[in-house]
Automatic annotation (TrEMBL):
<dbReference type="InterPro" id="IPR036046">
    <property type="entry name" value="Acylphosphatase-like_dom_sf"/>
</dbReference>
<feature type="domain" description="BLUF">
    <location>
        <begin position="2"/>
        <end position="93"/>
    </location>
</feature>
<dbReference type="InterPro" id="IPR035919">
    <property type="entry name" value="EAL_sf"/>
</dbReference>
<feature type="domain" description="EAL">
    <location>
        <begin position="154"/>
        <end position="397"/>
    </location>
</feature>
<dbReference type="Pfam" id="PF00563">
    <property type="entry name" value="EAL"/>
</dbReference>
<dbReference type="GO" id="GO:0071111">
    <property type="term" value="F:cyclic-guanylate-specific phosphodiesterase activity"/>
</dbReference>
<dbReference type="InterPro" id="IPR001633">
    <property type="entry name" value="EAL_dom"/>
</dbReference>
<dbReference type="InterPro" id="IPR050706">
    <property type="entry name" value="Cyclic-di-GMP_PDE-like"/>
</dbReference>
<dbReference type="Pfam" id="PF04940">
    <property type="entry name" value="BLUF"/>
</dbReference>
<dbReference type="GO" id="GO:0071949">
    <property type="term" value="F:FAD binding"/>
</dbReference>
<dbReference type="InterPro" id="IPR007024">
    <property type="entry name" value="BLUF_domain"/>
</dbReference>
<dbReference type="GO" id="GO:0009882">
    <property type="term" value="F:blue light photoreceptor activity"/>
</dbReference>
<protein>
    <submittedName>
        <fullName>Blue light-and temperature-regulated antirepressor YcgF</fullName>
    </submittedName>
</protein>
Amino acid sequence: MLSTIIYRSHLADDVPIKSLEYLAEKANKLNSLFNVTGILLFNGTHFFQVLEGPEEAVLDIYGRILSDTRHHNVVELMRDHGPARRFGNAGMELFDLRQYDKESVLQAVLDKGTSKYRLTYDDRALQFLRTFVEAREKENYFEVPPADYWDFITDDVLASVDAADASGTGNHHFAFQPIIDPFARQIVSLEAVFCPDENAAELTQDAIYALDLESKATAFALAKKLGIEGLTLSVNLLPMSLVVVPDAVEKLIEAMKASDLVPEQVVVEVTENEVISRLDEFESAIKKLKSAGISVAIDDFGAGSAGLLLLTRFQPDKIKIDRNIISDVHKSGPKQAIVQAILKCCSSLEIAVTAEGVEKPEEWMWLEAAGIFHFQGSLFATPKRNGIPAVSWPEKN
């Protein structure tokens, strides 16, 4: 199977530019041994490379490239398959863009192609190449420092409820995880994460929805004992819980009042990845929530198929980008493009954005550079049962 990988990267500061010809010559020999062909472009700072060949060989070569310390900030732009090579005339050829004008280098690259029709008309690889040559990728390319550029200094645990105190809050269990603004060193909200017991898996679907709603009374009671004055509390609800359970919104508001919480203090997060079969009734429930002063967020945005449809039916106050998109976003061109599209859309609609599931410093640094300011994940704090966990704040190393 013929495979193609395209990536861009940044030349390491301690690598002399004059060594690039030797680098390209060595790569050419190695690629020829693996039956891998392609084109390498260099603009004085960044590399852009197209690799083509048998899938296993391309992955082997790319693995070596990822571990090469002569460059960093490697971002994979495209991984695809096709019937024929674009650049079959060279094992690897280097084009130093400083020696060409934009028009001539494109023609020079085309001349190296073995399938000019494919390269000339609507070929994705060629479009990526053209963008790099014309330096249009810079608006979407953020340089991320090494992971050890930051230390993460842990605060003391803020608050907790012991087992005896928690026993009076209900039969359900919750852990709490902060949503933070790292540079402001501020907790902006707490999410109450439901911890279902083993018997929950045996419940019918309607019983799951009833349990989902009923459990929020425990979350509110625990929040009161933790003393969350000045903070908002986020609780997750399955979308269909608002539809299937009679008077769901009214019951939610009663549970808040019982714990001396006000609606403006609560954010209801509905998950995108559950199928919403009665959309009109769901939309009506959302109107009731917002009319009562309760904020609404779409959780796990991007995980399911309903996110964009929900945005056309109602606009939430916040969205939380799903962990699967956040994971290794600093290395993935497609994920970066998706995040940037989400940010542009939410900016137009004045919807706040949170990145959830952040685990690596590089993920956080790229997302911060892209324009996200609120984060949730184990990099900063892991959920704590019956308590507000310690937060690890970033400090420059």
